[in-house]
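One thing: can you check what follows?
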Amino acid sequence: MNTTQKNDIVVFLATGCFTGFLPVMPGTWGTFASIPVVILAHKSGGGLQLISAVFFVVLAVWIAGKAEVLLATRDARPIVIDEMAGFVVSLIWLPLSLLTVSLGFVLFRLFDIVKPPPIDSLEKRLPSGWGVVMDDILAGVYANISLRIFLILAGIL
């Protein structure tokens, strides 16, 4: 495999199968593209689900860092693997259903867009791929906790 092919794979993965190049709401489309990843992580179950999520986050950091160089822009708009990783975190150790995926999706996008503290400062303070991904991971943690509280109050969890 030559360098051009490797770079093409990095861009393909970083852009969520090219959903990041869509002209409208690339982060939302990237989040949607991560649903199969979420399902695969849930299929591994329990502790393996956490290991799968950590592996995906580390992979996302590496790919986002490489994609920034290839796209010559810090946190370039087409890079959506960070949203994908954040959404995986949003649903970790929660039951997988249409309700949880839908609410998790909305909550994750809300926290990712609004960026309440300290999410708003992570991207600027961390280097390269870490800055690109970790704000979305924290948005995923916020979404997971919020969804968990909702499911408990609704008597579902």
